[in-house]
Amino acid sequence: MIDDRIEAQRIADELEEPVARAGELARKLGLTPYPVNYWIVDYDEMNELIAYGGFQERYPHWRWGMAYDRQRKQSQFLGGKAFEIVNNDNPSHAFLQESNSLADQKAVITHVEAHADFFANNEWFGLFTDGEESSQDPAAAEMLARHAETIREYMRDPEIDRNEVEQWIDHVLCLADTIDQHRPYSPTVTDDETDLDAADPDERLEELDLSEDITRQVFDDEWRDAQVEDEARSFPATPEKDVLAFLREHGRQYDEAAGKAVEMTDWQKDVLEIVRREAYYFAPQKMTKVLNEGWASYWESLMMVGEGFASAEEFVTYADHMSKVLGSGGLNPYKLGFELWQHVENLANRREVVERLLRVEGITWRNFQEAVDFEAVQSALAPPAWIEDVPGHLEEIDPDDPRVDADALERARNGDLDVETYPWAVLSYEGLVRRHYSLVKPQNRGFLSRIGQPQLERISRYLFDDSRYDSVEAALSDVDYARGWDRMREIRQSHNDVTFIDEFLTDEFVEENDYFAYEHSQQTDDFRVSSTDPGDVKRKLLLQFTNFGKPTVVVEDGNYDNAGELLLAHRYNGIVLDIEQATDVLERAFELWGRPVNLLTIDKEYDDSEIEVARRQDREPEPIEVGRRLRYDGQEVTVDEVPWEMVEHLAATDVDYDTTPEEWLD
């Protein structure tokens, strides 16, 4: 144990300098991260932290052990390697595995600084703190620790069965993603005026304990019918997406002994709200996986390669690290996000240059490709030699140049700054912008010239003639080299994965990066490429990221058929529900409602003859869409076909994903 502590301290001492310099460089690059506390942990501790979602303490439950075991086996048998984990908190806490190489640790540190910047600035993360009255900071570690202690106290209570607490958590967790992630979190308040039992006159008469003769004489059928007619009501007024909140406000538990729904206990309400609050806290991370991991990978690469944080001896190790992160198969959020951020930067920088060139006398959107010497433009955009090689031009750098950090320059000339290791320290933000300008990088040198006529016409249409240039040289002298990074920070602030992909997964991006859509074929009963059309690729991706990639289910009626039953509805987007999983959800929802639970959805049916014809014609068969209602009454699940009119409103129409948090909140 002492040797372990000594080794951890040695690694921590070795990382002190990279941590300080990475934070300094991140801020020079325009990032504004939360402060980050770094911790050195061993293999088992890292697996435990990953299982706990990046925190050291969570409430007691078997799922953490399952997640730990899965992570451990993935590392042991599948070759997976845990580089880091960082949580959304202020300050953020990052955990580094002690067995990783120094090159890996440096990569993790630069990656983490960008994550902490994303946490601090993305408005979707702000939705959680907007709903918390006490603070505008997440204070997540404290919140989760309070939750853990509260649930432990319930489990220790001699009047509460520990197994019942754990089983109740199971029920709630099954519905944990049925929240409205586009709204700020706010605690639910039970509506004491809502009495679902009041809708059943027979139950109310039973509670009065009257004789059968009096009941028959005074409360006849006419009275019963009037009660049902007067009290028949549906709620909520509009579909409620936060199913957990609705269940917390109006739900009951089913009492088997009494054979009916009864009030939830205080501990059940409390646990339900705890799981709901944590679902809201973790929702932004699920909504921004591509955006956030791509952002962190972009700045990590810039710092490690572009600014030499990976030394010559460490570069091969780092290249292997990055290839594993970006090279894994399937839908890789790191790779997709990294490439999209590069595309965003290039688009913004290209538009800036094109806008300048279109103001040059004699250059129009019609003759742009012939009139512009792109090689000459590339040369003019390239950074001066002293910015590319700071150590080699140290004595000739002008301290009054806005691209220079004058204080750092003086320290470098006095020998108080290792300019060979940290050349970026001598540059200001403006200098770093020029040093890393995307359009002059070798991999992007053709990006400017590839702009199409429709794009040129569109840009030209919105240009004002208030600033004209006599020459290309004059136009390029006014180029704002920071436009790409400025645009990236704007997007980082307001977007989530769905809006990011919808706006920036352009036709040009799909074609240049060879993206395609694939799906399961009813014809061949396997997976195959379904399309390379950019529109199809975008739609496929949007479906995978909308609502965490899970079906959207809302509450349509809390008094369905005036019987106190719950009616849920699946907002159908062309993908049918897995009936087995839907059944499990209904059974869990029943435990939180106390009465039968219904679910409306749209299903697809395939006619055998249509499948055979499609196979002969080498095409996919056309499905028939039908309405279905699943119902669980506490004993069994029934599935019935319903008239199309009952489910027609559930079929998705065109959805505008190009929105920001402010528009969602209108």
Automatic annotation (TrEMBL):
InterPro entries: Spore_V_R, SpoVR-like_C, SpoVR_N. Residues 551-603 form the SpoVR-like C-terminal domain. Residues 13-352, 483-548 form the SpoVR protein-like N-terminal domain. It comes from the Archaea. Signal peptide: none annotated. This is Putative membrane protein. It comes from Halapricum desulfuricans. The lineage of its organism: Archaea, Methanobacteriati, Methanobacteriota, Stenosarchaea group, Halobacteria. The gene is spoVR.
